[in-house]
Amino acid sequence: MTYQISTLPSGLRVATEALPGIESVTVAVSVDVGARFEREEEGGISHMLEHMAFKGTKRRSARAIAEEMDMVGGNMNAYTSLENTVYYTRVLKNDMPLAVDMLADILQNSVFEPEELERERQVILQEIAMHYDTPDDLVFDHFSETAYPNQPIGRSILGTSEKVSFYKSEDLKRYMGAHYHAPNMVVTAAGNIDHDAFLQLVGENFTTLSTSAQLPAPKAIYEGGDKRTKRKLEQLHMVLGFEGVSFHDKDYYVWQVLATLLGGGMSSRLFQEVREKRGLAYTVQAFISAYADSGMLSIYAATAEDKAAEMLPVICNEVIKLKDGIDEHELQRAKNQIKSSLLMSRESSASIAEWIGRHLLNYGRYKPAAEITKLIDAITADHIIRASGKLLSKNNITLTTLGPQKNIPEYEKVKKIFG
Hints:
The protein is of the alpha+beta class.
């Protein structure tokens, strides 16, 4: 495997990793802008822009985009996160020029025709409605809003139906012009690829991007708090969270291991205690969300109404027990889970192309898998105990619940469990 990176005069970075044993290539464009860059009146516009990128350019209609990609048997998609937007396509190696041309076209020449915008608006409104009807998704929106109140990082990526209903073509063009600049974009490819040929194609196709620097997103300020939403459901959905670390923190991988040990698999402490031993929930899991300047450790579980009073203190006590010591075998299991997931993901050209883009946007360089696994291998039980102490010391927990509410312990009582 060979990784190479070049920078065009515009500031656009172009990076490749050659995987000569496969027949395909994934080409991705990662943009350093997401929902947390939106002003309050722009909520959901990053996501709407991503949808509209496939709905017609100055050279291609929406149907032509779909037909050209289907003609070569390729696939094309995109997604929006809080901090990045990624557009990607996977094709056979000989069709790589089409993939570059197509991505360059939609990111430089989209026209956002009013008729297409209105059709896609209805699709997004249905997506928002579906999200509202999915309690295990909606409870996380409430969680983010409570952890980061009155901040773009705490708002839903989808936006609200009220805002989405009023965006016009001019709004999308203005937002794209303000944020889609060459210095904060990365074009990556992984697969059966020649770097020099790819670099030339990117240089020939990406010619009209602004060379201005990106303005930073508003600073994230974690506050924590309590939000309970009563709804007639069969189960109570709950997220309990703590302030964590950013992906720049030296203990980032320590927190990943901590979350995996706590609730990342069937042998994890929460799974064994909450589900296997007590039968309180079908699903219970812990994970971290890390951003450029903040982060959280979150625990999600869903249970029957009559089990809620028992389940929440059990979860809290498992978190507290972390500071009492970590068994070397369970620590190794958690580390192996993370490493195997990381290495297995590298069997996909799409994962590698997106991984390179994310690293270059987040860190300014590509972190090889060997470097990351070495950091994970170096984590000790003392590292986990120290991180758990930091987690418990601030006592600014976030608790959100959705569903039947009458048996949930009060917020102040939950805080007192942690001391």
